[in-house]
Amino acid sequence: MELLVRYLDRSDSIGSTMTQDSSLMKEATLRDDLRYYFMSPCEKYKARGQKPWKLGVQILKIVMITTQLILFGLNNQLVVSYKEENTIALKNLFLKDYSGVDEDDYCVSVYSQQRVYDSLYYVMDQYSQLGRLTVGPISYAEDEEGRFLPLVICKQFYKRGSVEPSDETYDIDAELEKACMSFNPKTVNQWRSQNSSFFDLDFYRLVDVEITFQLKGINLQTVRSRELPDCYSFYVTITFDNRCHSGMVKISLDTDSISNACRDWKISGTAQKNTHYLLVFDGFIILVCITSAILCTRSIVLAVRLLQRFSRFLNENYNRKVCEDDQREFLNCWYLLIIFSDLLAIVGSILKMEIQAKSLTSYDVCSIFLGTSTLMVWVGVIRYLGYFEKYNVLLLTMKAAFPKVLRFCCCAGMIYLGYTFCGWIVLGPYHEKNYQMNGFPMTDLQKFLLEQKDFPVAEEGSQTDINVGYSTFCCCRRVPENDDIILIS
Amino acid sequence: MELLVRYLDRSDSIGSTMTQDSSLMKEATLRDDLRYYFMSPCEKYKARGQKPWKLGVQILKIVMITTQLILFGLNNQLVVSYKEENTIALKNLFLKDYSGVDEDDYCVSVYSQQRVYDSLYYVMDQYSQLGRLTVGPISYAEDEEGRFLPLVICKQFYKRGSVEPSDETYDIDAELEKACMSFNPKTVNQWRSQNSSFFDLDFYRLVDVEITFQLKGINLQTVRSRELPDCYSFYVTITFDNRCHSGMVKISLDTDSISNACRDWKISGTAQKNTHYLLVFDGFIILVCITSAILCTRSIVLAVRLLQRFSRFLNENYNRKVCEDDQREFLNCWYLLIIFSDLLAIVGSILKMEIQAKSLTSYDVCSIFLGTSTLMVWVGVIRYLGYFEKYNVLLLTMKAAFPKVLRFCCCAGMIYLGYTFCGWIVLGPYHEKNYQMNGFPMTDLQKFLLEQKDFPVAEEGSQTDINVGYSTFCCCRRVPENDDIILIS
Amino acid sequence: MELLVRYLDRSDSIGSTMTQDSSLMKEATLRDDLRYYFMSPCEKYKARGQKPWKLGVQILKIVMITTQLILFGLNNQLVVSYKEENTIALKNLFLKDYSGVDEDDYCVSVYSQQRVYDSLYYVMDQYSQLGRLTVGPISYAEDEEGRFLPLVICKQFYKRGSVEPSDETYDIDAELEKACMSFNPKTVNQWRSQNSSFFDLDFYRLVDVEITFQLKGINLQTVRSRELPDCYSFYVTITFDNRCHSGMVKISLDTDSISNACRDWKISGTAQKNTHYLLVFDGFIILVCITSAILCTRSIVLAVRLLQRFSRFLNENYNRKVCEDDQREFLNCWYLLIIFSDLLAIVGSILKMEIQAKSLTSYDVCSIFLGTSTLMVWVGVIRYLGYFEKYNVLLLTMKAAFPKVLRFCCCAGMIYLGYTFCGWIVLGPYHEKNYQMNGFPMTDLQKFLLEQKDFPVAEEGSQTDINVGYSTFCCCRRVPENDDIILIS
Amino acid sequence: MELLVRYLDRSDSIGSTMTQDSSLMKEATLRDDLRYYFMSPCEKYKARGQKPWKLGVQILKIVMITTQLILFGLNNQLVVSYKEENTIALKNLFLKDYSGVDEDDYCVSVYSQQRVYDSLYYVMDQYSQLGRLTVGPISYAEDEEGRFLPLVICKQFYKRGSVEPSDETYDIDAELEKACMSFNPKTVNQWRSQNSSFFDLDFYRLVDVEITFQLKGINLQTVRSRELPDCYSFYVTITFDNRCHSGMVKISLDTDSISNACRDWKISGTAQKNTHYLLVFDGFIILVCITSAILCTRSIVLAVRLLQRFSRFLNENYNRKVCEDDQREFLNCWYLLIIFSDLLAIVGSILKMEIQAKSLTSYDVCSIFLGTSTLMVWVGVIRYLGYFEKYNVLLLTMKAAFPKVLRFCCCAGMIYLGYTFCGWIVLGPYHEKNYQMNGFPMTDLQKFLLEQKDFPVAEEGSQTDINVGYSTFCCCRRVPENDDIILIS
């Protein structure tokens, strides 16, 4: 920028020693264009009367995208709370002695054989009378022929095994065997007498019991906000986990809920559905975003052309190149941010329209698109603050301090990482269970690692590659003689 | 102030070159008056022996207003705690299996049809034997003819509907129908047999059940603080909320309590009521506030006159105008603060007297008046700290730093806003229910928006207006060439 | 100190122009004494070989006083935990449905008449069979003739009253009447039949029921630490509080426990009691503290004499007075601190010996003496840090910054006070009860104020006095012309 | 370093005034070697093409040691969670009315004699039917002849005693007597009738009841991660603590679990055990660590030799010694850190291999070795950050600021210590029990001190020794005349 400033200044002050008129004219035009390019929207309006269309579009975009996000978020919340409340209701219906709060990553823990049997029978008793129990529009799933899908109980146990803790002897076949049983809610009277042998659990060998069934539900509440109700399939899994063989059976209930448009429906009594208004609104947002992206692209193109003109001029008249700092001045990163955010907003809006039209249910992906785009749009507002002199100081200071902060964080991170590993291994596992162990973010990795312990040797090669990359990254010039001087200054 | 200071200094040093005696005299008087005007109360006392009445009045006011506030607050707390304890007592009386703590924004949640019926019947059973149950002076409300007002149960349901989740089909008339039933505590034996059909709830169609009744209570505890007991009407609403149709019925109890003077009363045994002392105290506060306001107004008037004299003097002798900074020195903002706080205190005290006399019950409005006035009075104390040299530096520094802090907050706010929106949409709804979702401050907005989704397009026009306003606000001069220089300095 | 330093420096440099030999000698001695006086213990040892006795005594004192404090604290904790556990045990024995945790400032709350009666009868049933219930050495108190002291139930109610909430009418005699009944644990079969009318509570008029009884206990656990067991009297008060008449009766249990030496005892089996070792230790501490106090007093006396000599010298030779700053150099505040802490430690140790000998039970007073003394002794260590050059900078900086910090706190305090009052009155009472209201530190004041509302007018006079005092305190010189200059500098 | 820098600089600039060629050559070589020695790995590669082997080894080591630590930690966690879950299961099995959460440092507290008996009998009832109750592979321990080890109940009480709280008299023999009883799960029908006198507890004299038994368990879950199951002995102790005689009996359950290889086992069905992969991995780590240690030792040796050469050169040519600062430059503390961490890692890895081979079970010791080594390795990464110019400033600043921070902490620590002691004695013991008292870190010390109160006098001598040491440490030069100057500067 120095050169540029000097150029603008110098040419301002007195004048030129050039003799060719056309060249003089050319230079004056270039100077004007350059000066105009670096003006704020406000100054442009004062200088050439150009109205700040781009600024207007951006502000309109902020308002519209934020409104859209809020509407989508509220809708999203409805869906999420419906699923969550259903899960809570199912836990209260099917888990005996459920306190209303999960104990840990499981729901209930039981410690005696009788309690295990009670909890097991309770699930089936409740399932068989689901219709009379539940207060929600939920019922058994059916297959194509209209028959209810059965509840399936599977128990997994070591194939063969006799364990004699008193003798400190065991004889185990570590392969797992699985035995399953179906249970039809209509044949409720017979199951317990006919399958008594199935429920004779040998706890020494038992690894887990898994009860799975499928329920269907309808989310009627959306009727009230003038949307069509969705149909849901709930895949419920109740697990009696004895994997640890520690005298504690952990009972947990998981629901996997999938929403889809209902097969057949008839609705009346609501006013004409107003969802098309929303579609128009989404379409308008897409339009605004496209406009904004085009305007920004145009600005970038203009900037590149201006840079080329300036570069040619310098080359012809002074036989100099534009220095890198000045080149960077022409590339406005804000424009790239805005274009990227526009693309995200367009994709997000299309997804939202699809969800509205019930042809998609991927709320999560749409959330990420809309959310990221809104974040960028709001961060982009900072750019306009840069037009205020005082704010500019703030922004430039932040810009200058950023690498230092990053550097410190990196250095502190190293120590923290070492400290964390050391603390985890030395203190970690001895902390109370109900509290910290579950908070440790490695449970999934743990499960994966415990199954296959032989991978580290195999993976060694690839990790060394990473190291080589890191070591080359480390290579940079070092001037140890300067250290003390830096400290003194 | 520069000019003023220079004027005072110069005229101090040696003397005048003026020849007219009267003019000389005039100037000396003006100089004395000006110097006197900018003195602290202490210096005024030393200079002309004037006693600091105004300061005394202010200090008296602080003590009195704070005392009044505390007295009013303690009284207020009695009323609030009476209402709250009554609500807790009603929850414990009417809600089956109430744990003593609300689960969420509702009190109890139930998950099976039987529990819904039990809870429903429980309310009515308890209501019918209220007199034998409650330990407080509370009973049924009566109409004008002395008959007890009945309890009213209303159920709201979709007009017509058959829902078959198994088939993924539904046939719903989204219009709501309402059916109500009255229940008189005296006809307790008949209601269950006569209205059995009403209590045959079709949970698929049921939206909510609302039980409302009205109770009357008397707040006897005020007798002990020598005030007349108030009579209260409690409008109790118990809602069984199945709006979400998620298999979870949320039961909540709300009380709306209105206090009024009792219709007929006779009281004895207390010493003569001492409330008139309090009225005298309030009156005295009003007097002090009026005095304070008058003194401050007088000071402002005197300051304006002095400014006019000074302005005229400068105009006549030096043909100069008083610069804006000096003019501002004459306008003491503290005086305006004090006058405003006095007005608030006067209105608040009048309201308090009305409340004391039982002709008003608007504790809230009075709270705001008295509270704001006390806050201002205490903030006003800072002014007197300005008389200490060291504090003055502190005050001036705070004054100077304020706009910078504000600017930074504004910039950080932008990023925060974007971050919040993004975080809410991406992470928000997936957080655990019992915790964060309820903390989100949009629930009312949400309800409003969900009912009418078509407004954003309609409101677009007005929002664009705001933007235009914002863009004009943004227009200000920008000097990009200075950026680097600012950073360096 | 400037003068002093200059004097020491100047006389160091070359020599004197004095002619009298004796005077010269005198000055040299004075200079030596002065220089010696301002040395650290270490330098004194190097200069004249004086061993740092005073320092040694201080260090010995720190170790001994801290040891003593820990021993006393541990003992104290035993007593406190005995009392607390007894209170918990009594709550569990006498309060029906006590959850183990107090609900609020009360233990249990009940909401129906039946529950009140049940809780009331439960207390008496439990009391009558105390001997068979309790697991601790606790029993009924006896009067002089060996008869058990009875349990006393008192109910307080409005003298006369009929309340008709439905009619919004009441007729109350606000004077309170009290009816009491004694209950002897031996006549257990008769009380309920004979006093049935007493237990016919009219809840409209009932203010509270208070059950008081006295139990005796022996703290046997001290036997294990070779101390004599103490005897305790527990004055138990169970209150059924209906003062608020809000439909909620709050039951609370308070114990007032007083310890005293047992009347008659016989103990065997422990090794000879070792408490006399502790007495010797305490005696030794007193000795050390007296030594320390004497040494410090001596130092102060010597300093005053030295100051007098220096003052006389300056007066005679230079006809000057010692400036105030230099005088202050001679008065060592640390010595005063040490002497004060010694006195506290001596009193505390004597109290501790008395407690040990069971002739006193005022643990609290002794705690305060010993604790304050230990705090001062440790703070006194900072003085010795002042001998290290680097620490000295730290100390001096803290010394210099202290008034500024204080000033800022004072200014912020004003705003905070105003804010607190305003926030309390506007928001305060509407916050949830179970959380913040109880945290508000005015409950005692509140009770006091509610009983007698007429005092503020009466107290006005005295408060005005305070204000006058404050206003005179405010009087200090103000130089407004300097403000801007201060800000600039 | 100054001298060194000057030497390198000077010799760089123009040349030498030396005349001997060999000497000139020698100096040039030395200069080159010195310059090379202080280069970063990157510069070395540029200068002489030497590949950064040492850096590579370090990076490889970081990756491998961290991987090893994670694997070991996950394995360790399995063992710890098995033990913890077993303890929880035993508490739920044997403690009547256990809520699932410990109340304090005890599990359950009971307050009536009946509850004590019930809890006592419950333990034995549950123990006698353990086989039918538990869901885990746990059973009674056996002696060598195959007979079940019995449950042992011991009660401890004062030898003789009659306590009459009502009379305030007691007659106690403070010596403790112990009575025990065995209970065989097979003779379940007889114990209660035969030992009724044993269970006739005299609560006045009772100090505690201790129930101990031994159970055997097998940790089968490790089968799933292809390791051999371990056998465990659980030494269970249930204590009914009446030591405090405060009317509250605290019941607690402690398990001491010892793991060992099972006596006899047969396992099938798993794929071939993959533990040898892990052994190879551990071996490889040991190899890498040895390499790293050797490389670092070699570097230190080279540095010492270089220093000797430089020292000889300076001595011969300039007759000067290498100053201490320069000598320190040659001693690289990082190398010592790396070597120490290597040794720890080698020991840790060997321990880990032993544990894997089931010949050791000391997880804790191994944890400390591996953890400390990993911490050091990660901290060692900071060294490489020193090669970046900017980071170096950071490191040097931290190095310079460290003593000041330490000094401030020391000074603040003094005040804090005094404050803590004072606060503890004055406020401490009156805080609520369930919260702070248990958090105080002196409980063990307390127990120790309460048994033998006579030690402080005896220990006095040794503590005075410490003081003498401290006082000599305090001796250092003080220049009080400089204080003001320091403050000003």
Task: Give the arrangement of secondary structure elements.
The structure is a homotetramer of 489-residue chains.
Chain A lengths: L1 H12 L7 H17 L3 H8 L4 H42 L13 E3 L2 H16 L1 H4 L4 E3 L10 E14 L4 E15 L7 H4 L11 E14 L10 E12 L7 E13 L2 E5 L6 H44 L5 H7 L2 H24 L6 H23 L3 H38 L16 H9 L3 H20 L8 H6 L1
Antiparallel strand pairs in A: 1-7, 2-5, 3-4, 3-5, 5-6, 6-7
Helix pairs in contact in A: 2-8, 4-8, 4-11, 8-10, 10-11
Note the main attributes of this structure:
homotetramer, 489 residues, alpha+beta, seven-stranded antiparallel beta sheet, 8 strands, 56% helix, 16% strand, elongated
Structure description:
The structure is a homotetramer of 489-residue chains. The first copy, chain A, is an alpha+beta fold and 489 residues long. Chain A has 15 helices and 8 strands. The first copy, chain A, has helices at residues 2-13, 21-37, 41-48, 53-94, 113-128, 130-133, 191-194, 275-318, 324-330, 333-356, 363-385, 389-426, 443-451, 455-474, 483-488; strands spanning 108-110, 138-140, 151-164, 169-183, 206-219, 230-241, 249-261, 264-268. In chain A, strands 1, 2, 3, 4, 5, 6 and 7 form a 7-stranded antiparallel sheet that branches. In chain A, strand 3 and strand 4 form a beta hairpin. In chain A, helix 2 runs antiparallel to helix 8 (275-318), helix 4 (53-94) packs across helix 8 (275-318) and helix 8 (275-318) packs antiparallel against helix 10 (333-356). Mean pLDDT of chain A is 77; it is low at 9-16 and 435-489. Chains in contact: A-B, A-D, B-C, C-D. Strand 8 of chain C pairs parallel with strand 4 (169-183) of chain D.
